[in-house]
Amino acid sequence: MTSARIQSLLVSFYIFLFFLFLFAPLMMMGTAAFNDVEFPQVVPWEGFTWRWFPALLEDDLMMEGIRNSIWIGIGVMVVSVPIGLAAAILMTQVHRKFQTIYYTIVVSPVLMPGVILGISTLVFWDRLGTFVNADYDTFFYSGMFLTIIGQSTFISAYTMLIFLARLQRFDRTQEEAALDLGATHVQVFWKVLMPFLRPAIFSAMGLAFLTSFENYNTTVFTIQADSTLTTVLAGKVRMGTQPDLAALAVLIIAVTLVGAIAIEVTRRREQAKAEAAREEALRLEKAADLPLAEQAAQ
Amino acid sequence: MTGFFRRNGIVISTYLLLAVFVWVAIMIVLPQAYMLDFSFRFNLPPGKIGGPEDVYTLKNYRYLLFGRPGDEAMFNVLHLTVFLRTIIASIFVTLINFAICYPIAYYIAQVAKGGQARALILILILPFWVNEILRAFAFRILFGTSGVINAFLQTFGIIDQPIDFIRADIALYAGLSYAYILLMVFPLYNAIESLDHNQVEAARDLGSPWWRIHWRVVMPHAKPGIASGCTLVFMLTAGALAAPQILGGPSSFWFTQIIYRWFNTGGNWPQGAAYAIVLLLACLIFVLTVMRLFKVSLGEIAK
């Protein structure tokens, strides 16, 4: 056996270990979701059961958490996508001199621990509420509102980065052409820039919602008396535990797997289509060239 | 400024400026500034805020260092220990993360073929769609006293009594190392992917052993990625709350848990804000040190 062969075997073994580490916890959880015992465990195996799945639906607290999480996710999308877009457009226009400082400020929320964002949002709005003498049922003290604001603080930076990447490939002459032809700035924005940015808008929306949906560190401070899926889960896990949590995880993994496979399949299909189209074009080109080449040969 | 309005038109200019103003001023700068201000104040009931008793004090920071005034011990040993433990453990977790992720990132970026690389990335992302808390929960099933690892070790007669991995914090460190793998792999992958593979080949042809190729060719090229991955993982680990709450032993705390207590059961927000500022400063110092060490700019880190 050559040393190169040993090395490649070692590499394969390492990759195997890495993915084992990645998936072992989830596989354990997946098994525990079907084990017929009151405590989430894999061994000893007491028999197969589905009963933890219906138990999920009966958990009112968790259902309320999921509802709140969805609303907050939508709120974060509504706040952070327009902000990220504006910040990205401004970044392309801001004067060189200020670019570094501007970039540092708007990226800082990404580099800040989530608990700090939650705390600063909480104390700031609380103080603002006291300052304007707001009642306790106004939005200054609403857990849902504060959570949307707190999460949007850093999620807007994510959406901004997505828009920036797309804007780098934007050809500004299109904008100028539209303006020269008499379009207003608003028309240019909606009819030239927006269609170009559409894929980025969809990815920004998806990312914003998902990031919001699974955020815990910021939420746990801003949510106060309300609850989200993550705060309910954290409470349940800390309390001691029930296998229905494992069942929930299995559901999430299943949905994800289906989604990931669907995305990959459509991507491959499109790629195949594009390749077929290119081959067809090449073939046609060759066919068109052939007589010319023959003529040239003669 | 007039050029800006002429270029974008009144409506779009207003939207751009307003949205960025709301974000930068009301969501980023003012809350941070206010939290700093708040950390220097007494814990007053709402009625007294803004009154004559609402003056600045260093009391909240002094508490972290020395504990309650008139306490016997010189220092607030409990909280300082937790703080140092959090920082040291986070550095440790970051190094482990780098060691685990570097080979994978290199493999996907340089060795694997197109389709295989894409499949590996897809598999890599998959576990991270499951939420942070459920992931920590999975580690409890794995590491608990009646968990899989203990059962395995006992069946094969390696141990007689179950080991309490949670009390020993092994579950916590494993869970934290797991939690932020993606944030290490992707910056590394992006940085290594841009390296021309011919450079690796050239080094090999010239007789360089594999470890020197990595040390002298791949790692210097991937420096921004390494810096970026390490800072992200460090910050997220030091600022983690869910994993320590779920996987931490009953007698050991993470610094964020103390902050959390000041805000909830402790009911002393200014004290909590002061602790949060200390955590933020620690993170800032770490980032600046890494930037200096690796000679990279912030823009390269936050890519």
CATH class of the largest domain in chain B: Mainly Alpha
Main sheet characteristics of chain A:
none
Order of helices and strands of chain B: HHHHHHHHHHHHHHHH
Question: Fraction of residues of chain B in helices?
Answer: over 70%
What is the subunit organization of this protein? heterodimer
Measured by DSSP, the beta-strand proportion of chain A falls in under 5%
Rg of chain B, please?
Answer: 24 Å
SSE topology:
The complex is a heterodimer of chains A (298) and B (303).
Chain A: H1 3-32, H2 52-58, H3 60-93, H4 96-111, H5 114-131, H6 143-167, H7 172-180, H8 185-213, H9 219-222, H10 229-239, H11 243-297
Helix pairs in contact in A: 1-11, 2-11, 3-6, 3-8, 3-10, 4-6, 5-6, 6-8, 7-8
Chain B: H1 2-8, H2 10-38, H3 59-66, H4 77-111, H5 114-125, H6 132-143, H7 148-155, H8 170-179, H9 181-193, H10 197-205, H11 210-221, H12 223-238, H13 242-247, H14 255-263, H15 269-294, H16 298-301
Helix pairs in contact in B: 1-2, 3-15, 4-8, 4-9, 4-12, 6-8, 9-12, 10-11, 12-15, 14-15
Concise structural overview:
Chain A has 298 residues and is an all-alpha fold. Chain A has helices at residues 3-32, 52-58, 60-93, 96-111, 114-131, 143-167, 172-180, 185-213, 219-222, 229-239, 243-297.
Question: What does it look like?
Answer:
The complex is a heterodimer of chains A (298) and B (303). With 298 residues, chain A is mainly alpha-helical. Chain A has a domain at 59-248: MetI-like (MetI-like fold). Chain A contains eleven helices and no strands. Chain A has helices at 3-32, 52-58, 60-93, 96-111, 114-131, 143-167, 172-180, 185-213, 219-222, 229-239, 243-297. In chain A, α1 (3-32) crosses α11 (243-297), α2 packs across α11 (243-297) and α3 crosses α6. Chain A is globular and about 70 Å long. The N and C termini of chain A lie far apart (60 Å). The relative contact order of chain A is 0.12. Chain B has 16 helices and no strands. By secondary structure, chain B is mainly alpha-helical. Chain B folds into two domains: 1-36; 70-301, MetI-like fold (Orthogonal Bundle), CATH 1.10.3720.10. Helices cover 71% and strands 0% of the residues of chain B. Chain B has helices spanning 2-8, 10-38, 59-66, 77-111, 114-125, 132-143, 148-155, 170-179, 181-193, 197-205, 210-221, 223-238, 242-247, 255-263, 269-294, 298-301. At the A-B interface, α1, α3, α4, α5 and α6 of A face α1, α2, α4, α5 and α6 of B.
